[in-house]
Structures are given as structure tokens and as C-alpha cells.
Amino acid sequence: MPSLQVEGMTHYFGGLRAVHGYDLRVEPGQIRGLIGPNGAGKTTIFNLVTGRYTPTEGRITLEGEEITGLEPHKIASKGLGRTYQNLRLWRHMTVLEHVKLARYSKIGYGLVGAFFGTSRRHREEAEIEERANTLLELVGARHFADQVVTSLPYGAQRRVELARALATEPKILLLDEPTAGMNLEELVQMMDIVRRIHDELGLAIFLIEHRMKIVMELCDVIQTLVFGQVIAEGTPNEIQRNPAVIDAYLGKDVVT
Amino acid sequence: MIFFQNLVNALQLGSFYALIALGYSMVYGVLMLFNFAHGDVFMVGAYIGFLVSTGLLTLANLGAVALPTWLILALTIILAMFLTSFVGMLVERVGYRPLRGAPRASAAISGLMIGIFLETFVLWLGGPKRRSFPALIESTTYELGGVIVTNKKIVIVLVSMLLMLALHLFVRRTKWGMAMRAMAYDYVVVPLMGVPLNTIAALTFGLGSALAAAAGVFFGIAYPVLDPYMGIRYGWKAFVAAILGGRGSVLGAALAGFMLGFIEIFVAWIFPSTWRDLIAYSIILLILTLRPHGFFGEPYSAQLRL
User: Fold this and answer.
1) A221-226 vs B141-144, strand pairing mode
2) Residue A255 domain-assigned?
């Protein structure tokens, strides 16, 4: 059973057709890439899959269960995690709080626990912190745990975003340009982390990326999207040699 | 001595402003929305408190139930808060949720309309006559070194502060409070954490309205006369306090509420009382000019809206 499957998805914004007849099948443990020029509809596809928009047509299933048209928080709690292209952190909250809120549906203590510090609260908080620290360790941000996110360097903020998405315990993770705006050092670190997430947690990953080197190195299968339609799908090698892709997107020069 | 006397009065007036301001501030913080119906929710809360206390007193007088007065007072506060929170949630559901995607001005107008609806609804239901709030606390006066303090004032100020502390703890320590804070910074990612936005939005309105209801009951105890337009008079001033405190800041709204009480009372002490609002709000205007984002607000607002 695929982790994520999309069949015949079409979406209109008013009269504009943003996505047309889109199909996707992400197998468990697979890393999938989505490339395409600006405005091709890549982020729209993410927004459709995560429930921010409801597709005009089509069917989306997560591990065989249909999620089309569900509210975003329901889709998220069924095991779909996501990060954004631009940073979307909560400015004055600490790193630990970011990861904590991702455990929202698993926090069982209520008012009494919060006000009077019951043993249940202590137990759950300890659990959450342990889990949070493991994840922050994984993305190399553990030493930032008690800091407010705005005080962190850019690369670290992006890694916190990743840890937050992981804390929801997703079955599949959608990454929208995970290396956008990063310098070389941060970029290498991020690639390393994505690989580690994949290897250690066995997650399926579906990512949008502009830097070819990263897509080619990380992904098992790549789709190329132009004007809302997939024009090519295949392994990095196949994509790099596909004339339609080169023409529409990669450019006729050297592909790096 | 007059100074301390004024201080006591300012604390009481400040409690009303602070409790109401918190509701404005929370909704503004979490949903980037001015809930212009909030002053009227305070009024409705006072009337609900009036109905509950009158009902309970009638039952007690008939001998149907044996209720000591302090218990009636406690029940009035709790029930008024509980019932008014539903009024607040209804306001959100009917007046704001359908307008989420609409221009901000439409939501503001919707709030004003709901406010007018609530005023006229109470007017229609209860008539234009002012209502006297039943005396739930038998007045005792203490004299402390020349300063006269009534037990009512002590109860009002203490319970108000306790409620504010409870709200502070709620926002800081519960998962709902954490979700509210996160929404204030960036609501888009919040559902990705499995958090239902509508629930948090309703909760924000509910909590703010409960605090406004407490203010309404205290108002009824302090100046025992209610009328359908009391919400406008006090609501607008509390709104000023909310803005002065800074967007979404619990501490800010509380402090600014008390500050407003102090300024009003002390201005009236020094100047003729007809000048009170003129001078008091000129001072506030000056403060806002110097600190446009309020005491604890963020100087730059790149906030997103729901």
C-alpha cells in the first residue's frame, strides 16, 4: 500500500487551472522529488494534499485511507507532516514549545493538571521533553531547546521547523524547498539530516526543491511539473536526460 | 488619606476595565480581529448575572433551597461566566466565522451589528427600565487609618486578580493556551500540528466572554444599576486599554486596564469631574503616540490574519 496516493487531481482557482490530472504514488520509505519552474503549481499540490485547499476533482489517500476534503488538522493527525518554503515559526516561543505543540493531540492532561501540576502532567511533560530532545538531537538543535526561535541562526530555524513536523509522528513528510535561502554549509547539513530522517525513522518523503544537485542526490523518483501538469517522471538519471524536461526547465546547458 | 481612598477606588474601576480588556486583547491577538461586540457581551454577562442571582435569591426566599448569600454570590459569578462564554462562542460562530475570508472591515462591521443586536435584544426582552442588581454582599465598611474600604471592593479586586492569574496560567500552561499563542504568531501551520483552529477560535471567544461576564457581575455588585447601553460606555474604554496593553498580551491588557482606572479616578480627583474623560483620554492618546504598539506589543507587525 502506498504511503500517499493521488489520483486524477485537478484544481481550479476561479477560471485558472492550477493543477491538471495529477497522479502520485509515494511508496513507504521512498524519497520523491517534485521539480518545475516557478508558478508550475508545486506548492499548490502541497496545499491540496495537506487540505488547505480542497481539490476540484480527484482523490487523495493516505495509507489507503481517503483524506480528500478533510480539514487540515484531521489530515495532519492521520500522519501527514509538512514544512513550508518560507519560515513559519512562532516568533516568541521557545524551540521546545514548538515541538511540544506538535504533540497537541497526545497531551492528555487538562486544566487541573496545568494549574496544579498533577503527577499525570509531570509524567506526560517528561515524556514530551524526552521525545522532543531526541528529535532536536536528530536535527542538531538540542542545545537550542530553551531559546526563543527568533534568536537562532537561519539554518537552525529551518531545522527546528523540521523537528516540529517530525514531532507530529508523520508517516509521510512533505518538504517544500528545505534548503531555500541556505548557505552551502547549512545546505550540506540539511541534506545530511533529511537522509538521516529517512534512514533512522524510515519515513516516506516528498519534497519540492529548486537546487538540482539536491534533488538528484536525494530522490529515488522525480516528477517534473510544468503549468500544473506532469511532463516527466522517472529516476534522476532519466529526468536529467529527458529532452522535454531539459527544454522546459533545466535549460539546454549543463545540468548541475 | 484621600490619595489612598482614590487608590482603592481606582483598583476597583481598573478591575472592570482589565477584565473586559482581556477579552478584546485575546481575540485581537489570536485572530487578528477587533471584536466590537465585546462591550455588549459584558452587558449581557451583567444581565445574565442579574437573572441568575435574582432567581437564586427568589428560590432561597421561598425556602425551596437553603443557600447562604456567599454561595449565591459564588454561583452567580460561576454561572454567569459559564453561560456568557456560550454567548461569546455564538458571536464567533454567527458573526465572525462566516466572514473569515472577507475583508477585515466586514468583520468589524459584523461585530458592530451584533453589538447593536445584543443591546436591542436586551432592551426588547427587559424593557428600557434600569435594573437594580440584588445586593449579594451585605456591605461592611472597614476603616484603615482613615481609608474607607468596603468588603465588596475587596472581593471584587481580589477575585478579579485571581481570574487574571488563572487566565495567565491557562495561556502559559495548557495545550490550548499554547495553541492560542502559536496562532497569534502564525496560524497557518497550527492545523498541521493536529490543532483544530475553529475550536481554538471558539475557546478564545468563550474565555474572553467569561471574563467579561465576571466584570459584569462585579459591576452589578459595585454600582447596582444595569442598563442595555452600559456595554458601550465601558466596552470602548476597555478596548482602549487592550490596545494600550499591546496586541495579545495578557499582562499588558491587565496593566493597561488598571492604569486606565487610575488615570480616570485621579484626574477626577484633581480636576472637575466633567473634565475627567477629556483629560484622561488625552493622556492615553499621548502615550499611544509615543508607544503606538502599546506596552507589550511587537513594534513590527508582519502578522498574518485568519
Assistant:
1) unpaired
2) no
